[in-house]
Amino acid sequence: MVSLVAGLIIAMAVVGLAQQATKTFHEEVRAGSAEGQVRSAVERLRLDLVRAGYMSTGNIKLDPKIARRAGAATGSRYLQLDNMSSIRLFQNGSFAATNADNLATNNVLSPDTIWLTGNFTSTDEYEGVYLKTGGNCGGPRMLLGQTPPLIENDATVYQLVKGGAVGVKRTFMPADSHEFVARITDRVGCFHYAPVCDAGLIAGQAFVDFKADSNGHAGVPSGAIDGRSCGVPDGNGSVERLFVAPIQTVQWSIQRRPDPDLDPIAGLEPATHKFDLVRQFVDSNGTLVDRLLNASDPEPERVAEWAVDLKFGFTVDQALSAAAVGTTGLILSFDPDSATNATWAGLVATQNIGDPGPQRIRAVRFRVAVRSPMADRQADVTPDLVPGYAGTYRYRYCVDNVAIASCTRFARVRTVMSEVSLRNQGRMYY
User: Fold this and answer.
1) Is 137 exposed, middle or buried (0-12, 13-18, 19+ CB in 10 A)?
2) CA–CA gap between residue 396 and residue 394 (Å, rounded)
């Protein structure tokens, strides 16, 4: 009996140790999952930030390389493109009324939303034959490459066509029933922007169709930049060889995305407490490509589940010319919680030369935070902020609907801050 009692005591100790080890193991798995998600999200976001302005314009209103029609004040004849820019920031824009949860208030977090514009579906621009008529939308058409079977002579178009009609369409139009943008480069190097309304293959040759503007003009109007004759001359026939590049806008935000397969199990935590870091396309009209808005749209990309924070700060160059680079006081940096960031990445349709604008953002600092899926702590931890830094970020996230001072259930948070240099905008001084 003494041996049995001793063995029972040892067994109870072993069971207790095993329970504690199991609990610790699952806690670390959850924390490790949060850390893995935030790091992969940071890398994904960095890739998109690097492409801001890639094959596009920093500010369509002021860009001097854009051919304009006589008397035009904006870079495009299309009203829907008047606010096109490489970066547009919506401070505190992630929690809209449709997905707001008072946990954001309790945790003192107000994630941003950002739009980035550039070529996100390709690394190339494509040469083709520009036809002033013949498009499916009442506007012009471009036939990419040369007439088959000589299309193999153009490597970029050949690779594009290998993806079939769907591959061509998704390069220029990531979602059906949505118009996106293309940059057309004419024979003297002037840029023209127009909405793309169709793309695909016809008789084995890739085509891109452009929307006609309200006046029925073709996608490449004649005009002038610095004395150069830009565009397709109206009286010199209907065929020109030009280059076209696909342009898209992507939105990064934190959203509540209902999904029974991904939401927490009933009883653990309300499903409305779960938010995700989401990347999705925005069409040329500023409409989100979102299955919640249009059942035929693709589901946006969930970059990280259980995301709780997304903030952006800019380093800007106030110089209006390359000659002024290096002048004291012209380079300014703002932390990710500064209200000044919005003045540099807002609407551009009403901007004038010398105003703060997205084309003069030289680097982006950002903060991404992801929480563990379950509460595993009872007390809050306040981070020590860097002196002079006005931002707010958390080590613990209150999962209950109470003020954080009264909260007793916290999930651990993993936060990563990083910075990206915008190489595509390094020479934009307009």
Assistant:
1) middle
2) 5
pLDDT digits (tens, 9 = 90+) for 134-157: 888 888 889 998 655 545 567 888
Q: How far apart are CA 50 and CA 234, in angstroms?
A: 38
For 359, which DSSP code? G
Collapsing DSSP to helix, strand or coil, 240 comes out as strand
Q: What is the pTM of this model?
A: 0.88
- Output the CA–CA distances (angstroms, integers) from residue 348 to 61, 117, 160, 168, 336, in the order listed: 6, 13, 33, 31, 21
Phi then psi for residue 208, to 5 deg, are -135, 125
Q: What is the pLDDT of residues 264-320, one digit of tens each?
A: 887 777 888 889 999 999 999 999 999 999 999 999 999 999 999 999 999 998 876
Q: Please, what is the end-to-end C-alpha distance for the chain in angstroms?
A: 91
Rounded CA Rg of the chain: 26
DSSP, collapsed to helix, strand or coil, labels residue 375 as coil
Cα–Cα dist 335/388, whole Å:
10
